[in-house]
Write a structure and sequence with these properties.
Chain B: This is F-box domain-containing protein. The complex is a heterodimer of chains A (146) and B (547). By secondary structure, chain A is mostly helical. In chain A, 55% of the residues lie in helices and 9% in strands. Classes of the chains: A mainly alpha (146), B mainly beta (547).
């Protein structure tokens, strides 16, 4: 029996082929295959091609199950840039690939844990919606931590 | 590499990242934006964060030496319990002092669960020390926050109620268990406190404590998963019972016959219950040999290993790696023993020094994972919450590893005297209310093992020695000892009267008549105890009571 192949389409309309038995590590894809057979192209409108290429590289890994933990750690370690990791984490969350999402978020957490507030905001693109006085009041609740 | 522009970051993914951050970062990142603060402060996030593995710490509570009675401060040191070789370098040099009420006397660590350390002690309610409240403090050292909870005490004061602590792993709700014993006829009264309800509730009769034993080993309790384990001694052998923190069911846990009559203590090794059997026991001749038994999944205990090393005096607990943290007694100066604390590495047969030297008081070790628990608790009714800022410099918190006795304290002048029991002997500690210094009042040797009460007669400290001790015989004999100006005790008089059950105190009059309690057995309500305040002549044994 020949292995069935699926086609995934990124946000920027690039097409990626992947064997179905590997693709269904993503719970989202597995459900789509179950529902309508997914003979046609599966569109992933929130994942760009660079990120999707990474996801597919991960899904195609040929690791023995016992080495999987180390592999996924190393996999995210090698992509140590926060913006890339965030995209990867987001894609893994959307596609419901738990191990990849865990590892990517863990890596981001590890990178930002010693950041200043301003660095965190910049890295995660979060707007400060407080006045400096309000911010200080919250900070003062746990002065020892700063 | 080019920077990618993220138009926004989904909140879901922010939550996933935050869940994996250490506690200290989260405390800081509450200020990042409004959404993060409400998330981090929310109960579901706090519970969820606790499920993601966090740094494991060992906390050691000890009194440093330079032996001056009572004047040393209790110190807490924490180590990050890593699997790698960096242990024990990664240590908190000056860990935060627990923000506990400044007047929490005789505090001791009960246990830890889900990042919370549970301390227990007493707080005097009246300035003269005539009434006091038993209190439990839940302390989260990672966020430096604590909550004090009053333990109701309606049992006769001579029965020290047992207090247990555990956090329900499903709901992350901290719970306290109180077991008080009334008398031989009555079953144990069991009450449970949940922090979510902030209420103590009596358990229904179907969840009663199995009526089997008298002596609760307060410092031998452990929570594993949703089960709380307690060690009890029935006078002959050890028994273990478990309490389900979700269903509130008690169970007996079978203890291997070969260790039931040993000198046992209970601990935790990774997430398993272990029993430490000190083969030396109470004898002072041989060296210590410790058998470590572990409870397996089927509930049976299996001997895991034996620790034989002459210098090891006590096992305080275990590292995540399984290496025991031990005390090594090093010297005896003027009858005072000090000890070093170290980690025993069995394969190297070597003890790695942790750089801690304690005084004569035993040190206590507990382990905890960082957690955000209590972050969502505000100061409101039912509990007293204390912020660290109000309590800087609180260090003297009484004796540890010593059982504080409830109504065994009194204030005379500027000294608060209280009774403590170190498992073998009675001691009297004094606390100077002006200088906040601790001291010890020497007891006559003949009294150190007796069944004692503390009281005051006019403005002198008196000890009431119950000559009958614990077993109930028909005629009660009480010896009353008074502390003289020079600090020595002299026997003043003896009270012998069949109907006197207990001496509650003395009148302030010149004759110093005792106020006593008489037990009356009436047929309708056999267990009722009535308190009479009586005038009696000390010299007259017939005791013509006039009410």
């Amino acid at each position: 029996m020949s292995k069935k192949t699926l086609t995934l389409m990124s946000k920027d309309k690039q097409l990626f082929n992947i064997e179905e038995h590997l693709a269904v590590q993503s719970v989202t894809i597995r459900n789509m295959v179950k529902e309508d057979g997914a003979s046609s192209v599966i569109p992933l409108p929130r994942v760009d091609s660079e990120t999707l290429a990474l996801v597919i590289e991960y899904l195609n890994r040929q690791q023995a199950p016992e080495e999987d933990e180390d592999y996924v750690k190393k996999f995210v370690d090698e992509r140590g840039e926060i913006p890339t990791l965030l995209e990867l984490a987001q894609a893994a969350l959307d596609l419901d690939i738990k191990k990849l999402m865990d590892a990517a978020c863990m890596k981001v957490a590890d990178l930002i844990k010693d950041f200043t507030l301003e660095e965190v905001r910049e890295a995660l693109r979060i707007e400060n919606d407080r006045t400096p006085e309000e911010e200080k009041a919250i900070r003062d609740e746990f002065q020892w931590a700063f | 590499m080019k920077m990618k522009m993220l138009p926004w970051l989904e909140f879901d993914i922010q939550v996933e990242i935050l869940k994996r951050l250490p506690v200290k970062s989260l405390i800081q990142f509450r200020s990042v934006c409004k959404a993060w603060k409400s998330l981090i402060d929310s109960s579901p996030f706090i519970a969820d964060h606790n499920n993601v593995s966090q740094d494991h710490h060992l906390m050691i509570r000890y009194r440093p030496p330079c032996w001056q009675l009572g004047s040393e401060e209790v110190k807490y040191v924490c180590f990050v319990d890593d699997d790698d070789d960096s242990f024990p370098q990664n240590k908190f040099a000056t860990p935060p002092v627990p923000p506990i009420p400044p007047s929490l006397y005789g505090s001791c660590i009960i246990d830890t669960s889900c990042g919370l350390v549970c301390l227990e002690g007493y707080v005097p309610v009246q300035p003269d020390g005539s009434s006091k409240t038993r209190m439990v403090v839940l302390w989260n050292p990672s966020i430096r926050k604590s909550i004090a909870i009053v333990v109701p005490n309606d049992a006769p004061s001579e029965f020290h109620p047992f207090v247990g602590f555990g956090v329900c792993p499903e709901t992350k709700d901290p719970k306290l268990l109180k077991i008080s014993y009334k008398d031989d006829q009555d079953p144990y009264q069991v009450m449970v406190f949940t922090l979510s309800s902030r209420e103590w509730r009596c358990l229904s009769s179907s969840n009663q404590f199995p009526h089997m034993s008298l002596i609760f080993m307060t410092y031998s309790q452990t929570v594993i998963g949703r089960f709380f384990y307690g060690l009890v001694f029935d006078g002959e052998s050890y028994l273990i019972w478990s309490f389900d923190l979700s269903t509130y069911e008690f169970r007996k846990v079978p203890v291997p016959d070969s260790v039931r009559q040993s000198y046992l203590s209970m601990s935790k090794l990774r997430e398993s219950l272990v029993l430490i059997d000190d083969k030396k026991g109470y004898s002072s001749t041989d060296m210590h040999v410790f058998d470590v038994w572990m409870m397996m999944e089927d509930g049976a205990f299996t001997k895991q290993f034996t620790i034989t090393k002459a210098s090891i005096e006590r096992i305080l607990g275990f590292r995540k790696t399984g290496e025991p943290v031990v005390e090594i007694e090093i010297e005896i100066v003027d009858d005072v023993t000090t000890a070093l604390i170290g980690v025993y590495e069995p394969f190297l047969d070597h003890i790695k020094d942790l750089g801690i030297c304690r005084s004569a008081t035993f040190s206590v070790m507990c382990s905890y994972n960082e957690s955000l628990l209590l972050l969502d608790h505000d100061d409101d009714d039912g509990c007293i919450e204390i912020n660290l800022s109000q309590l800087n410099g609180i260090g003297n918190i009484g004796f540890e590893m010593i059982i504080p006795l409830v109504s065994y304290q009194t204030v005379i002048g500027r000294f608060l005297y209280r009774f403590v029991f170190d498992g073998e002997f009675y001691l009297i500690s004094s606390f100077d209310l002006s200088t906040e210094e601790f001291g010890e009042v020497p007891l006559p040797d003949s009294l150190r093992r007796s069944y004692l009460f503390i009281s005051k007669l006019r403005e002198s400290l008196v000890l009431i020695e119950d000559d009958n001790g614990y077993p109930t015989t028909y005629i009660q004999v009480f010896n009353v000892w008074m502390m003289m100006q020079d600090g020595a005790f002299t026997k003043l008089f003896t009270i012998k009267n069949a109907s006197v059950g207990r001496i509650l105190g003395f009148k302030k009059t010149k004759t110093g008549e005792p106020v006593v309690e008489i037990e009356i057995l009436d047929d309708v309500n056999r267990d009722s105890t009535t308190i009479f305040c009586l005038r009696t002549l000390l010299r007259s044994h017939q005791g013509s009571w006039d009410l």
